[in-house]
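Feature request disguised as a bug: please show the residue count (430) next to Homoserine dehydrogenase in the output. Example input:
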Amino acid sequence: MSKPDKIKIGLLGLGTVGSGVYKLIEKQKDEFYKKAGADVEIVKILVHNMDKKREGVDPELLTDNWRDIIDNDEIQLIIEVMGGIEPARTMILEALHAGKNVVSANKDLIAEHGKELLDAAEERGVDFLFEAAVAGGIPIIRPLKQCLAANEIDEVIGIMNGTTNYILTKMFEDNMDFEEALAKATELGYAEADPTADIEGLDAGRKAAILASIAFHSRVVFKNVYTEGITKISAKDIAYAKEFGDVIKLLGVAHNTEEGIEVGVYPMMISQNHPLASVRDSFNAVFVHGDAVGDVMFYGRGAGEFPTASAVVGDVIDVVRDTQYHCTGRISCTCYRTTPVKDFKNVKNKFFLRMQVDNKPGVLASIAMVFGVHKVSITKVMQKEACENDGVAELVIVTEAVKEYQMLDSMEHLKDMETIREISSVIREY
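Example output, currently without the count:
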């Protein structure tokens, strides 16, 4: 069978990432034949607003009609960078069923409907690649599916959101409070006008679902992921982390255990000696442990126009290579297991607690008794007077690893005690 000299592409979306993809393909157009064995050409770009001026893009390429792309038999590859669930899901399924290869950067869609899309690709023997859906330009999905495939992976943890990492870095290094750091992140364009998906852990939660599915070969969807954001992290918590030789990071944490998969996103105190502790500002990193390879870490820009475009165009090159040798669809869904996802209440973690209590004899003993009732072991206690005049002291307690429900029950018990003025912080420790 002959090899095509040129692969024609339909691009869905021309926002930040779509523009980066277009520019990068144009920049690399003289290299494609050497790298992939065929030239590529974007022949149609689906946009929402045809009247918007787009510098450097031929207006003849633009369309607001999906039929101009899906009904064009010459288009062999669709790049989807629109984001959101619909209409992206319907369009990708239609493209796959039509025998077109698809590259996507859509983490929201893949975290919810990845199995459906991968099954459709496998059915037609076409490629559905999505390296850019997690950690922007950092290679992680392909390494998990290919380079590390010989390993039994039991842990994937990572800083999967650049906005929150930037905020926590500013709080740690520049002594900013949360609101000030968020304002700075917004000013620099790291945070959206509505930062909820970032600061509440939802963005990282979708990425954690995708990585857990791939690493552990069993389907994990977004609703399986416990998510907690960074809005309650205070300057005092940061100060205590420094005192303990730790930093606070919003981590996606996934473990493959004998009892099932544990997966969540939440702030954690992590030792300054851990490789993830040195990941600053808007950078991302994913730390993986495999039984053969040991520890490996992937680090780099987790978002942005060109880092994300780098991953998208890398997938495009892979598709073109596969097309040249008539071997598309080689690697589709790798979830061949049905491992249960543990109820998060049964996951074990160490905890850091900071509370305001009455500064009088017997309070610490009564708190220790509550923890004892709920089988929570204490490893460290620190007490500092918060104010000489109001009779309140700040108490810090660090626990051994206990199940989440044990800590929840302890918290409910403590809240009912008159001597506890406030439970200010509950942060997990790695």
